[in-house]
Write a structure and sequence with these properties.
This protein is of the alpha/beta class and 259 residues long. The protein has helices at 3-20, 25-38, 45-58, 63-81, 96-110, 128-139, 174-185, 230-236, 248-256, and strands spanning 42-43, 88-92, 115-119, 144-146, 158-162, 190-194, 216-220, 223-224, 238-242. The chain has a 7-stranded parallel β-sheet, covered by helices on one side. α4 (63-81) packs across α5 and α5 runs parallel beside α6 (128-139).
Length: 259
């Protein structure tokens, strides 16, 4: 048995203790997070976000380069496993995880997939990267629609979840909760999460009120603790870790506090 397998076994034991009420949720999160962080190549979502910022701000890797790399890896996973006849519905927020989703849409559209992109959120809160990806997607021939409170999600074979990323640490509410609950209930062949399933706390694996249960999560750079513990384990499905060009130096600088 490898060390990682031993850590997973210990996390599963903690799951059992939590279900039986033998330990509190606080005790579970503290112990399970420590075990997950000991696993090879696993960090918290907060650590991942910090490494991203170091790669961009200190190592001067353009954010759009990392975004294109991440989107390519997610799109490539889909191309590797699903034929071009599959209808793809991509759900996006207006932040950078949503921008990843729009970028994935463009790449799949250019590969011949029938793609629909549905955005949830206030257009005025779109990030600069989102607007760039939106423009590129439209130039490729794609159309973007916005989700409204009483909308019914269209039928699709593949659903790509790019609503929230690793930065979610608050309960899901309002129209976002409406969309996430509808997406979770939607019958599809596969649901693919971009970096982390929407509704899951990337540090603790907690379900933040509502979530989209994925069959596959394509996560970037390194695995996340929130995919290995708590409800995150149930919602992540198969976790596929893909490299996107964040240097190991960025992770080391984050751990040492060197900037």
């Amino acid at each position: 048995m490898t060390n990682d397998e031993l850590f997973i076994q210990q996390i599963e034991m903690l799951d059992t203790f939590l279900q039986k009420g033998s330990i509190s949720n606080e005790q579970y999160l503290k112990s399970a997070s420590v075990l997950a962080c000991k696993m090879k190549g696993c960090i918290s979502g907060t650590q991942a976000a910090a490494a991203d910022r170091i790669a961009i701000d200190v190592l001067k890797i353009p954010s759009l380069t990392l975004m294109e790399n991440a989107s390519f890896q997610a799109a490539e996973y889909i191309r590797e496993h699903y034929g071009e006849e599959k209808r793809v519905l991509i759900l996006c927020g207006t932040g950078n995880n949503g921008a990843d989703g729009v970028c994935i849409g463009r790449m799949l559209l250019e590969s011949g997939y029938p793609v629909r992109v549905l955005v949830c959120g206030n257009p005025e809160k779109e990030t600069a990267e989102f607007r760039i990806q939106e423009e590129r997607y439209k130039k490729a021939g794609g159309e973007i629609s916005f989700f409204h409170e009483n909308d019914v999600l269209p039928e699709t074979e593949l659903l790509v979840d790019a609503v929230f990323g690793t930065g979610l640490h608050r309960p899901v509410s309002g129209i976002y909760r409406t969309l996430i609950e509808a997406a979770d209930a939607l019958r599809t062949e596969e649901k693919i999460a971009v970096d982390i399933p929407s509704g899951i706390n990337s540090d603790t694996g907690e379900l933040m009120g509502a979530g989209i249960k994925a069959d596959v999560t394509v996560t970037f750079g390194k695995n996340k603790t929130g995919l290995l513990i708590g409800e995150g384990r149930k919602y992540a499905g198969h976790v596929e870790v893909r490299e996107i060009g964040i240097p190991e130096e960025a992770y080391v600088k984050n751990q040492t506090g060197e900037m």
